[in-house]
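User: My instructor asked us to take a sequence, write out its structure as tokens, and then describe one feature of it. I'm not sure where to start. Here is the sequence I was given:
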Amino acid sequence: MSTNTDPRPSIRFRGRNFLALVVAPDPPLDKWYQDLDSWLARAPAFFMGRPVILDLSAVALDKAGIAALVQQLQARNVRVMGIDGAEVEWLGLGIPPSLVGGKGEPAPAVAAEQAHAHAVAPSDGEPSSLVVDGAVRSGQSIYFPRGDVTVVGAVQSGAEIVAGGSITVHGALRGRAIAGASGNDKARIFCRKFEAEFLCIDGYYLDADSLDPRLHGKPVQARLDGGRLITEPMD
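Assistant: Let's start with the prediction itself. The structure tokens for your sequence are:
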């Protein structure tokens, strides 16, 4: 009778959920690239360090076209880890793998134009809100696509909050606030002192040049109304 005396442990395989953004290009791609560049100019940290799933269901591309699209995204520091909506036989070396078993969810606009992205995240046992106890400093990015974010302090200029739900800032909002990033058109943004650089809810945005100067320094809420992002004072 033989005995296995190999001291090495057996190979272990585990299933694990990871958070990723789904980016869904729309034709024509030249216009979509322009919209994406416009979005990145306003929210440069949005994709930073975050894996991306590329949804090709809205565009008809061959292998060379897919490779060119992936290269265009990589040049913009958008990291594509997998592809959905393409025939498996098209894919090869140099192209991220095709995904199997993903949920088919529509991707809301990341900007008011045609650049699309939405978050896919595990839900079982995950918290639905995040509290940041203190100020968010310039250069920091808080990313929580599972639900609401509350900041007990200020959001400084150059800082960014990205939430799947609503954002509440109990101090001054001087940086960028992106709510409804998971495709939630009911999300809102609240702040005690309104000095924002950029606001976005479910893809509809206002930059600093579009914000009402009469609200500067006042308690404000932002919400969607009939496909428009509006800001209004809080009583």
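For the description part of your assignment, you could build on this observation: Residues 102-122 have pLDDT under 50 and may be disordered. Try explaining in your own words what that tells you about the chain.
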